[in-house]
Structure formats: structure tokens, C-alpha cells
Amino acid sequence: MNVIIVEDEKLATERLQTLLKQYDPAVNISACLESVEETVHYLKQFPHPDVILLDIHLSDGHSFEIFKQISYNKPVIFTTAYDQYALEAFKICSIDYILKPVTQEALATAFNKLRSLSSSLPSFDMNKLQPIWEERLYKKRFIGKVGQRLFFIEAKDISFFQADNKVVHIIDKEGNRYIAEYTMEKLEGQLDPTYFFRLNRSTIVNISAIKQVKPYYNSRLKLLVKAASNTEEIIISRERVADFKQWAAS
Fold first, then answer.
1. CATH code of the domain covering residue 83
2. Which of 16, 118, 166, 235 has the most beta carbons within 10 angstroms of its beta carbon?
3. Span 17-53, pLDDT tens digits
4. Last residue of a domain, one of 137, 155, 170
5. Using CB atoms within 10 A of its CB, is residue 129 exposed (0-12), middle (13-18) or buried (19+)?
6. Which residues contact 165 (CB under 8 A, 6 or more apart)?
7. In this structure, are 14 and 123 located in the same domain?
8. Domain interval for residue 38
9. 176-229 tens-digit pLDDT
10. Alpha-carbon dihedral sign for residues 117, 119, 125, 131
11. Are residues 130 and 149 in the same domain?
């Protein structure tokens, strides 16, 4: 197995080399690189490895920039001190996301996962696995509050989210209304975009709750959204109409 380490801290690089050899002495470390620029140059010049061990914060920027400059569909294992990039990492080619300090156990788990996937998919097309990983990252359940009581609401049972004076509400398909301790921006990153779409600054809708779409003045659209026996009317902002049509037809 050929491995590339991309890490701008010398001690962290040496630690990864040691842990890899402890895991499997047969692992071949093809290169140890330190920057986005150096990694892009290497991957353009040489065959791609079986896996890249990749830090996120490099000396010349975030490692996500690498994949904007090259075509790459082999596995990546991220090693980082930051947990806020997990979703973005899995949208690339990541099979694992290890927080520093990297332990032998965490590294072994990641490589065992890699070998398991490789044996079940001989051609190992990362693009085929991508939807599976992304689906696992999106929230399936939310907590809503009514007074002092907390309720668990399945994402599939939510009709729409609506913000009102910085308070976000969950409206389920039974018409129940809950306070949600999320911002609209955070929700956008946690909801599966196959089913949920942000119509405007204050509303995110579940496609299964849309009853009807009507033209509305000033080049906007009006949605009739189901919530039990009630039907809510929601206006799609003009700048979101084109994206909505593309999303609804995909």
C-alpha cells in the first residue's frame, strides 16, 4: 500500500510515519509533503497513492484547495486538530477524520476501514461511495422545545423550518410547532439537500411537504406547504427561484 503524508509539522509527520510502520511494516510512504502547492505539484507529476494522510491547515492554506486544482478520486484520511471541517472533508474523498493527537488505535481503525472497502469494491470508485458517506453525515433527528418539554422530531417528519426574530421553529407534518436551538445557517449544513431547500432568509422546506407551486408577482414563486390540515403559503425570494427549480427537478 502506497501512502502520502501531507503535514506541515515535522513532529506530526514523524509520528504518523512511526504509527504507520507499527500498523503495517509493509506500508510504503511514497512522500511526505508540507503544503498545498507541493501536494498539487506531486499529484500532477506522479501516480496517485492508495491513500493520502492529510492535515487540513497547511502552511499555505487549507488542504481542500488541493482538490480544486486536480482531479482526484482516491481515498483520503484527514488528520487535524479541528473538528469543524468534518462535513466538508467527507464531501471530498474522505473515509475517516482523525482528531489530533493521532493514536495508534484511531489510525488502525481508519486503515482497517480502507482495506474493508477496498476488498468489497475492487475498483474502489470513491464517487460511488460519496452519497453513502454524505447521507450518514446529515442529521436524521432534531430536538424541539415546547415550554420546558423536549421532543425528538425525525427529519422526514418535518414540514419546514421557519425563523422569526432570530427564533427558529420546527413545523412538523402534523402541524405541531417547536422551538429549535439552531440557526438557519447551521441547519443548512445539517440537512440533506436532496430533501431540504432554503426558500428565503427565514424558511427551509422539506420537498415532501410541498403541495403546490404557483407563480407570484415580481418573478417570484408561491409555495403551498402542507402541515396537517393547514396549508402554509411561503414565498420564494426572486434570487432563489432558479436554484429552486433546478433542485426540485433533480
1. 3.40.50.2300
2. 16
3. 999 999 999 999 999 999 999 999 999 999 999 999 9
4. 137
5. middle
6. none
7. yes
8. 2-137
9. 999 998 888 888 878 888 899 999 989 999 999 999 999 998 889 999 998 877
10. negative
11. no
